[in-house]
Amino acid sequence: MIALAAGWEITVERGPSCLVIRLKPGNELETPDDLAETIWQILEQHFVFRVILELDEVRLVDSRLLGQLLKLVRRIQNRGGLLRLCGLSPFNRQVVALNGLDKILPAYGDRHQAIMLSDCRKPR
Predict the structure, then answer these.
(1) Alpha carbon distance 54, 124 (integer Å)
(2) Of the candidates 48, 38, 39, the residue with the CA atom closest to the CA atom of residue 82
């Protein structure tokens, strides 16, 4: 487990050809400014740029969190990788869609769907 500012925590697991990263917010009103950079460092350490980001514990996807996710997805895509979200509440899925980001940040119901319905299973 990796601790971030404002009490946020990150856990990392290996999935088939990808990393599964779970975000656990502490103070959701303060999205850490270094969230994207911290996750990027994890990806570089594991030499894996295919990521399932579990957000089931995030109650509200706000503009700061969206900004961090966009920063992260750009870096991942520049390395030929992919980022998939899972576990978003219906409200948070709507937030992503209303901001026009549902194509850039595709969301799946759970980890299993994200792995099975994405390119994570394809060898790199």
Answers:
(1) 22
(2) 48
The CA distance from 85 to 42, in Å, is 17
The full DSSP string for the chain is -EE-GGG-EEEEEEETTEEEEEEE-SSTTS--TTHHHHHHHHHHHHT--EEEEE-TT-S---HHHHHHHHHHHHHHHHTT-EEEEE---HHHHHHHHHTT-TTTS-EESSHHHHHHTSGGGS--
**Tens digit of each residue's pLDDT (9 = 90 or more) over 18-38:** 999 999 988 666 788 889 999
Place of tokens 């209303």: 98
Residue found under tokens 């599964």:
20
Q: How far apart are CA 46 and CA 104, in angstroms?
A: 23
Closest to 3 (Cα-Cα) out of 19, 26, 21, 20: 26
| Rounded distance between C-alpha atoms, residue 63 and residue 85, angstroms | 16
Let me know: does 37 contact 3? Beta carbons within 8 Å.
no
Best CA proximity match to 51, nearest among 31, 80, 24: 80
What is this structure's pTM? 0.86
